[in-house]
């Protein structure tokens, strides 16, 4: 038996530190299994991906994108510069269309402006923005091959900023198809093609930043926000998904400098398709109509209505029905003041704007299934969508004898009865019941809630009231439970709800009226 011989390690064989070994292994592409840590930060495992290549897409769709030149009346052009087309008052300091001839003298009756558009049929129908051709005395279209043709305005819809043109081509034209914008997801790649600053055939790419943007530019705003660079002249140009379908029409930017800062907006293709189909058929647009005055649900209103948030801290959801138009579709279906609409045809309604956009997009005569909350209990009703009045009136909208000074010191209002003189002042007849708010204490919960002198209180919660004493009794009953006081008031001929938080509680506004 021999003793084991000692082994001496030469310098070249000495063990290196573990970190160095791991780094070397990784540089050689050898996988190292990380030990399981009980605590510590998450280490993401990602895969390298290449950026998409849009060459083939652009080659195929570009021939269907056109440049549009409009000779616009000078007075309309000035309005466009001041805030958008079609009376929309778009909130952009440098709105489309871009004026290509600002050097012209004021004595000239027209100015030249350029935008973009795209062909949707082989016989020459072209879609663009309303503000590109609004007030135009002459419109011409330049095709991708350089051919310029005169164009006729088939129809315009200022409320959605969509217009339809028609040219007479020498042969069949290449055209593109409107896709389904409901499937668009934030983060997906998109391509914009257009005529920025008169540079026709310009291609830019980016991603969808958000959906459903309401910019208060029009009554039915539902923009897709993108970061693909678009500039003056891109108005009316198509926004493509990776499968070559048009998912939007570029319409506006927000920019302090007039150039792209990565905040652009496109009209969803489903909106464009609905409007264009009607313009092509009849030259005008009809919209769905329910016949209700709706109101935003503030946190205080939600508490007064006993509405539970979807999760703790979440904002209130739904649209509160403040008033129902007598004889309208909603009235015939049984919708009542105080109902909260939570879904329409399965689509969740988070706000008044959601309900407006969904309703107006529906074809008159179709059935609408409404999920509502009535006195806190879910119900389902079916209404037949009507045709919105052309003049816009009645449209759905996103509202001293006995106790002459009967007031609630804790909420800050003084009340007066509906005397003959008071009815004459307010312009209401004998059929109107309630008590008039005569004074409001400065800084009081009532003032913070948005209550106004001249409002006629007709109900406190579900309790109808017809005189100041009845109001005071009902208010005291609610305050015993330390709940917000829900008032149904008549203001300028419209019923709205106002929630007043008791003194010492957080208060907010009563929510804005909206029509639909």
From TrEMBL:
Keywords: Hydrolase, Periplasm, Protease, Repeat, Serine protease, Signal. Residues 395-414 have a biased composition (Low complexity). The keyword Protease applies. GO terms for biological process: proteolysis. The keyword Protease applies. It is found in: Periplasm. Pfam families: PDZ_2, PDZ_6, Trypsin_2. InterPro entries: PDZ, PDZ_6, PDZ_sf, Pept_S1C_Do, Peptidase_S1_PA, Peptidase_S1C. Residues 380-416 are annotated as: Disordered. GO terms for molecular function: peptidase activity. Residues 291-376, 415-493 form the PDZ domain. Gene3D superfamilies: 2.30.42.10, 2.40.10.120. It comes from the Bacteria. Residues 1-38 form the signal peptide. NCBIfam families: degP_htrA_DO. Belongs to the peptidase S1C family. This is Protease Do. It comes from Asaia siamensis.
């Amino acid at each position: 038996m021999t003793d084991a011989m000692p082994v001496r390690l030469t310098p070249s064989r000495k063990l290196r530190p573990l970190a160095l070994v791991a780094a070397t292994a990784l540089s050689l592409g050898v996988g190292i299994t990380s030990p399981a840590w009980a605590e510590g930060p998450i280490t993401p495992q990602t895969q390298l991906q290449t950026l998409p290549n849009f060459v083939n897409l652009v080659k195929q769709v570009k021939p269907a994108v056109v440049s549009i030149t409009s000779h616009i009346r000078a007075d309309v052009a000035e309005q466009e510069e001041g805030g958008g087309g079609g009376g929309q008052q778009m909130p952009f300091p440098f709105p489309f269309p871009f004026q290509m001839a600002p050097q012209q003298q004021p004595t000239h009756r027209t100015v030249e402006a350029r935008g973009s558009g795209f062909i949707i049929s082989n016989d020459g129908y072209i879609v663009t923005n309303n503000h590109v051709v609004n007030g135009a005395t002459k419109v011409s279209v330049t095709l991708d091959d350089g051919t310029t043709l005169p164009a006729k305005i088939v129809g315009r819809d200022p409320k959605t900023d969509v217009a339809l043109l028609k040219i007479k081509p020498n042969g069949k034209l290449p055209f593109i198809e409107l896709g389904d914008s409901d499937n668009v997801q934030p983060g997906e790649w998109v391509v914009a093609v257009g005529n920025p600053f008169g540079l026709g055939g310009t291609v830019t790419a980016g991603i969808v930043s958000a959906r459903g943007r309401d910019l208060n530019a029009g009554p039915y705003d539902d923009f897709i926000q993108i970061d693909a660079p678009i500039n003056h002249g891109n108005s009316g140009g198509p926004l493509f998904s990776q499968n070559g379908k048009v998912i939007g029409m570029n319409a506006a930017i927000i920019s302090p400098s007039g150039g792209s800062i990565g905040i652009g907006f496109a009209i969803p293709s489903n909106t464009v398709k609905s409007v264009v189909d009607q313009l092509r058929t009849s030259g005008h647009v009809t919209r769905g109509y329910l016949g209700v005055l709706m109101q935003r649900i503030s946190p205080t209103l939600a508490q007064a209505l006993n509405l539970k948030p979807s999760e703790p801290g979440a904002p209130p959801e739904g649209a509160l029905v403040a008033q129902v138009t007598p004889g309208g579709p909603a009235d015939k279906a049984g919708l009542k003041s105080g109902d909260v609409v939570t879904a329409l045809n399965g689509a969740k309604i988070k706000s008044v704007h959601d309900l407006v956009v969904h309703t107006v997009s529906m074809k008159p005569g179709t059935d609408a299934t409404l999920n509502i909350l009535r006195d806190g209990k879910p119900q389902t009703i079916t209404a037949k969508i009507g045709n919105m009045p052309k003049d816009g009136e009645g449209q759905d909208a996103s509202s001293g004898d006995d106790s002459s000074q009967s007031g609630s010191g804790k909420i800050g209002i003084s009340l007066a009865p509906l005397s003959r003189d008071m009815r004459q002042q307010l312009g209401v007849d004998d059929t109107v019941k309630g008590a008039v708010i005569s004074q409001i204490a400065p800084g009081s919960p009532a003032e913070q809630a948005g209550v106004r002198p001249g409002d006629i209180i007709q109900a406190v919660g579900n309790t109808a009231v017809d005189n100041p004493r009845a109001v005071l009794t009902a208010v005291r009953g609610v305050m015993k439970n330390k709940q917000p006081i829900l008032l149904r008031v008549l203001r300028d001929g419209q019923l709205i709800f106002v929630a007043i938080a008791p003194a010492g509680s957080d208060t907010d506004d009563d929510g804005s009226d909206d029509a639909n």
